[in-house]
Amino acid sequence: MTNDPKLTYLALGGAGEIGMNMYLYGYGPVGAQRFILVDTGVTFPDMDGSPGVDLIMADPGFIAARADRLDGILITHAHEDHVGALGHLWPRLQAPVYARRFTALIAQQKLERAGQDPKIVRTAPAWPETVEIGPFRVGFVPVSHSIPEASALVIDTPAGRILHTGDLKLDQTPLVGEPWDPARFRSIGDDGVKALVCDSTNVFSPHHGRSEADIVGPVEALMAEAKGLVVATTFASNIARLRTLAQAAHDQGRSVVVLGRAMNQMIQNGFATDVLPDFPPVVDVQDAEGIARGNLFMLATGSQGERRAATAQLASQGYRGFRLKQGDTFLFSSKTIPGNEKSVGRILNQLSEQGVRVIDDSDGRYHVSGHANRPDLEQVHTLVRPANVIPMHGEHRHLVSHAELARSHGRTGVVAANGAVVDLTGPEAEVIDQVETGRLYLDGRVLIGAMDGVVRERMRMALRGHVIVSVLLEGDGSMADAPWAEIVGLPETGAGRKPVAEMIEQAVDAALSGAKRAALRDDAEVEKLVERAVRTAADELVGKKPVTTVLINRFEG
Amino acid sequence: MTNDPKLTYLALGGAGEIGMNMYLYGYGPVGAQRFILVDTGVTFPDMDGSPGVDLIMADPGFIAARADRLDGILITHAHEDHVGALGHLWPRLQAPVYARRFTALIAQQKLERAGQDPKIVRTAPAWPETVEIGPFRVGFVPVSHSIPEASALVIDTPAGRILHTGDLKLDQTPLVGEPWDPARFRSIGDDGVKALVCDSTNVFSPHHGRSEADIVGPVEALMAEAKGLVVATTFASNIARLRTLAQAAHDQGRSVVVLGRAMNQMIQNGFATDVLPDFPPVVDVQDAEGIARGNLFMLATGSQGERRAATAQLASQGYRGFRLKQGDTFLFSSKTIPGNEKSVGRILNQLSEQGVRVIDDSDGRYHVSGHANRPDLEQVHTLVRPANVIPMHGEHRHLVSHAELARSHGRTGVVAANGAVVDLTGPEAEVIDQVETGRLYLDGRVLIGAMDGVVRERMRMALRGHVIVSVLLEGDGSMADAPWAEIVGLPETGAGRKPVAEMIEQAVDAALSGAKRAALRDDAEVEKLVERAVRTAADELVGKKPVTTVLINRFEG
Lengths: 557, 557
Fold this sequence. Notes:
Chains A, B: Residues 19-219 form the Metallo-beta-lactamase domain. The structure is a homodimer. Chain A is globular, with a radius of gyration of 28 Å. The first copy, chain A, folds into three domains: 6-207 and 369-451, Ribonuclease Z/Hydroxyacylglutathione hydrolase-like (Metallo-beta-lactamase, Chain A, 4-Layer Sandwich), CATH 3.60.15.10; 212-359, Metallo-hydrolase/oxidoreductase (Rossmann fold, 3-Layer(aba) Sandwich), CATH 3.40.50; 465-555, Ubiquitin-like (UB roll). Chain A has 16 helices and 30 strands.
């Protein structure tokens, strides 16, 4: 068997789901391949599947086990779903990090916040300059997206060239950041691209994407028309949008206030790395009370309904003493990410109850997407002319549809969800292996496996309640005292107004009294008896089978 | 102070939220008013706010306390958000139930399932016939909606006429059920309508609504084009849609299979009450394996991603042994209700992974809404010519926008969210009082108040985990044994790989050992000491402050 070098692609996260992007490229003989990892993103938890969890990220187990062969971690851009896990996972990876200047600054902040050394981040130059990382020569190609300095990656290897798009849109007037340059993509294609690994987010959007510049007019009109205070929320990292909104307000004689740590930090980051050319003067919220509402504009974090963000605070108790009033206008210059509809809806209604006029993204005038739509993707394929298209950054159905799009133009489209190892060595990409992938949860301070059962236990308590039974037994197995039950998360009285804890205690007492002495000398047997008694009694009383914890105290006396 | 009779409107549920509709009309002198209650609906729980809960409904406390003056419960139509709570709440209300024939049958089924007597339901005739209920004369006016026999209510009182629309759309070709008849609404208006209490669901939809008949063509084309099996899901109660889908399949030579109890029941109900004129022959799923997939069509429950419904089963392990295959088509002939996007998305991707072609409602060809859009609402206002418009059935922002719409045409628009008592006696409606409203949870078998804390306790356990500490003390306050901790829903090892339960036990031991004897003789003091020790230790180890339950056993002697 030959062991010729192989060029491989493997999604550890982000292919078959939205979020937590993590893609691994390998080159070399099997068993001695060298690797680069592209992006280390997170996704956000919810009560539905991950209550109490702080962040969700791809499990880097596959590459962590081969960390000695990892030559670099490359970050395409500074969105959380691409960089958010860096600080948490770096200890398992221990490789230098490469990113362009703005992204590098945020990567450094991530590392610092997680107690890691920010100096491991190296600032990469923009294409056509390249950096050599192991057997890979990588160029960071400026593309437009909803954050400055987003980059596609040209990855040159002895087995050929890969173009990894990262997140992109074809915006020739992005206002802040680099415009889309079709000539650049065409020239990259001129040298022959073996595989285009391509963003699939908007593959179901049938029309060409719109430019960031398209919303300037509507925003200006809104600022001019509004009589009272105008507040706008969007993603903190969408610096172009922040500037558009603030500039339009400023032009109408409104003072600009920026609420929320993340937005202020992002504006600072923009200045520090020269991606933000200018921004209107900013006034502190403490001074806002002194300004007539018609002369005031506020930018606020929390467009997704995040409970602690400035928007949620403004919608309820106010932000640092500042409250909204009848006649104010609140603009959601953002898209609601699926899953956040209820949180956002709650805020829309809280605002409505205060007499605030709410404008959301439903008519599309105040927001444009950061991703390439279906015809835009076709244009990318056409410019780059790759032999193979490997859709990434999408749910499974997005990958399938994007691969179909590629095939409809005579290219090979490969659906490779997380864990599929794609061999790119030959002319035709093919899936040659399937490795195990998974998710890690940052749960408070601890990284746990999504399948460890910790969160499942919490969900079971949330659905069924928790009964704790304390049993006191003598050494010989006789009961030293009546059993005692505590109920948490169950009603106090059940069917027929019966007291639940008391009825459970009676049921346990009866079960243990009726059991053989020998059984009661065995903890496992006692537990089983108690659990069964609790389950039956609770089911009858409240219609639930609660999680049960049994504490057995024995006196050897 | 005079005590002239007053005509009042009070939403107990459904105004300021979508779902759990419950509206109360009163007539008579204050303190001796007689009442009718319109609708007793539910809404569905989620992990986010109501984990483990089975159904959410409006708290009928206000009218339950005056049940002796409740003359009737009127059900406008058989959707869950209008009739779903009937069986659970009837014991607190004890009044006769009125509905038209199809609705009455479902109301009876609801009562029976909850162990109540179905005979308390009286079948009401259609307008222009009326029924006398206390001081109210009520007519059930046929309107079109996404379920047969939906009714608006003409409520005539000595103080004037109210038109309560229920849910409606202006569909002149609904295929099953009664078409929208503008002349009927105009003639109701001819006699003078004091208040139009009106559906607000689609007030933000700017174009005229489309007819159920509009989807026949696209569905027929889809059935003709599809090579393999076609499965479609929609709401079980949308009998017109079930028939359209099944008929189109049948016309293309496909055998029709109906999966899921709810759909089969609804078709039976349709026949039993003569609202469903015909339906193609139905084949049992057991016989489906013998039929070529291109000659097969299945209707499946679960369009909202419900975990146990036929759609979810087909998307995962199969339904009663029947599995989907590459080349099959799955149609969502339905809208995803906000909050269900993730559950539905999960199913779309499971289907995609099996090679199934998925068609959702995103291009609007295979689904139409059951509610009147903004210009339709304008048309209703114009036909009825009410003095006052009271928007109902909507979130707060829907009510506000609908009231503005009314005002823009010179009518009085009153935003009256749940709890606002609206006086309709005079020419101009006005809010005269605010009463307490709330929600009840059906939690297993028990109805609990949403604010009782039971569900909050469960959510706290889901977010923070649960630590149980057992403390054994002698009568004099000395420790009889070292304390013992059980952790549920927390990782076993925390920061620095330290064992969490053991570290918590040590912390509790230290706290109790360092405490005064006198303190340890007081259970409340011991609890406080233990809780504080657990919280501090857990926060350090895992970054969470868990729910803590302390079990204290004392030996006297």
